[in-house]
Design goal:
Blueprint (H helix, E strand, L loop, with lengths): L6 E2 L2 E2 H26 L3 E7 H11 L3 H11 L3 E8 H4 L6 H8 L11 H14 L11 H5 L2 E4 L1 H9 L3 E5 L8 H13 L4 E2 L13 H11 L2 E5 L7 H7 L4 E6 L2 H4 L4 H15 L3 E3 L10 H18 L3 E2 L12 H22 L3 H17 L3 H26 L6 H22 L3 H4 L8 H20 L2 H6 L4 H20 L10 H13 L6 H20 L7 H23 L5 H34 L1
Parallel strand pairs: 3-4, 3-10, 3-11, 4-6, 6-7, 7-8, 8-9, 9-10
Antiparallel strand pairs: 1-2, 4-5
Helix pairs in contact: 1-15, 1-18, 2-3, 3-14, 9-10, 13-14, 15-16, 15-17, 16-17, 17-18, 17-20, 18-24, 18-25, 20-25, 24-25, 24-26
Amino acid sequence: MGKMTMTTNKVPIWVWASILLTALVSGLSLAQRYRAESLNKAVGIVADWDTIETLAAGAGMWDSDALSKLKAAGLTGVVVGEKTLGEFLGDKTSFERITEEMAVSGGGPTSLSTRQYDRIAHAIRLRYPLYANLNLPRDSLLMNVSIGPDPVGTAKAKESGLALIARINNPPGVSEAYVRGMIALAKQDGVRYFLPVGDQVLGRRDALKALDESLTSAGINYCAPEFAKIGGDQNMVEMNPGNVIRLHSAQTQELDKLSQSAAVERYVKALSERNQRMLLVRPLSFASADPVESFASFLAAIKKGAQAEGYTLAAPHPFTDSGVSKIIFILIAIAMGPALFWLGGLFFQSRNIQIIGGLALGLLVVACLKEQGRQIAALVAATLFPLVAFSILDRIRENLKNVALLFLIVSAVSLTGGLAVAGLLNGLPFLVRADVFSGVKVAHFLPIGLIGACFFWRLTPAKEIMRNPILWSQAALSVLILMGFAFMASRTGNDSPTGVSGPELAFRSLLEQFLVVRPRTKELLLGHPAMIVAIGLLIRSQTVERLRGWAVLALMLGAIGQTSVVNTMCHLHTPLMVSLTRIGVGLVLGGIIGLMVWGAVNRFSALREK
């Protein structure tokens, strides 16, 4: 490597080539992901049968008329819950009346049709195999037996030409035979989608494989509800991502806090920003002059919003795999190797350590043949490319004084790390969240700490500062910074546990009204402006030493925006173009804010020097 000394502003040409090649090869991978996303634009808007039936009764309409009205407004499917024997037989609640209806004494069906009798008998045998002759010991066991999807709702939905989504519970003591039998009943009824209900998926835990096999053989897709914590749901998604359709719904208490426009926006954002393909919609209001008309108006607004985003109302189908070759993954790892090797050489001058680093990069290339190896390579790219970006900044700032151009160069190099992550972790499991990038938090915060430490050591008399006593002002600033990072940590990741405050929600809503895609707040208002100021201070600190400490602090804050750019690409279930647009909008607006702030800071600093 010693002979490769050709440089541009102290950065070797082969480092620039490595960065460019990494971006290009990652782009080849991401082009196939974009194609897979583009081929899936069908969206389903569905509602619960019980809700529709209740609204129709309240409005004085026949069920079929209500369904027709809602279908015209955008409804594509009906969610039908299961019916228990007790619910089906109505007021015939005693064991004697039930056995009379079913004529178990040998007289054959009476008021029940032969088909109803056969279905009930079959359902009881599925649930309680030992009681095949219907001689049950207690009324409660018999009354709670599920006979499958609600026959009335099923019939009404089919008559209206709407898709059927079945919800089936997971009662205690079910067997694989019960799971398979219930799915067979659902297929017999014309069910197209299965949606879990309650705390557990049907078959949890030991019969989930039977559920997956039954759904696949029956041609029934599994709907995975977003944000729901249902036992066995993630197992089903991981088991067969090719049969999964992501579903978004909002609970009544959540909708109650929103205006209609905000509620519509919530559903549409689920489609456009998180690749959900089925929307389970509940009424925005329970009380109105015409309940069905109000619900239809809500559905029509969601339909209009979905179509405006380029989606088509039709039967949703699972995503297909992007089909990226393993050769592409290996090429990404090879392409980013030289830039990372150069970075290591800046910190470790020992020849032996450099040889070990080179061998490690070689092993990383081979590891990309396996998914776990690609996770490691993605973590390396996400963590080290921001460091490459800041190292390049440190070496070209003496000859290049344009703050805006330096900001774009640093951001482009950091973005390359994000492209590498998305390019390496490209496949159906990541698209439907059967798998996620597990290094999100490490990749977001480790570079910030390393960048701060490196520039603190490089730009300031670190040893002398470490020997000096800590001032109260320094301690207070340190505590504030640590609290800020702790808050950011709680808000970072694929599932953030911290809720968003009211003022922030209002600010986000304002941005979404005027921008194509809302940028991330920490990039727009903190990271990118701080990066602009940091670059300006870094350039001026070459002649004004007292600015170096402030430059280090600003660089750490600026690193937040750079790692956030990488982090945006790590949300692999977000549509690719949404992520890239979000990054672009954040860079432009954050850069403009930063230039304005730097103008004020620079003027104030110049006045102080006078």
